[in-house]
Amino acid sequence: MHAQLTLAQLPIGSAAFIHSLPTGRVGLTRLRELGLTPGARVTMVRRAPLGEPIEITVRGSHIAMRDHEAQHIGITHVEQAFNPAQSTTTQA
Questions:
Q1: The pLDDT value given to residue 56
Q2: Taking the domain 5-79, which CATH number applies?
Q3: pTM metric for this prediction
Q4: DSSP labels, the chain
């Protein structure tokens, strides 16, 4: 069985779905109220220069949090980061 990924491990520009959030932690309860619930799609927007806080988007909102909070949020189905340099478009 493989180890579960956490939101703290999500690369910048990548998206995933929240799998689990523990209950009973005050900080995580507030994040749940802001829309971080199992099944919600989150995207890692950026990290501050020293690594934290991180900025994510969820349900159309931008949220900042510390790594110690993000380490408790389990994620699944990581989608790779979008790289515009690798995108190919054709024009008619």
A1: 96
A2: 2.30.30.90
A3: 0.78
A4: -PPPEEGGGPPTT-EEEEEE--SS-HHHHHHHHTT--TT-EEEEEEE-TTS-SEEEEETTEEEEE-HHHHTT-EEEEEEPPP-GGG------
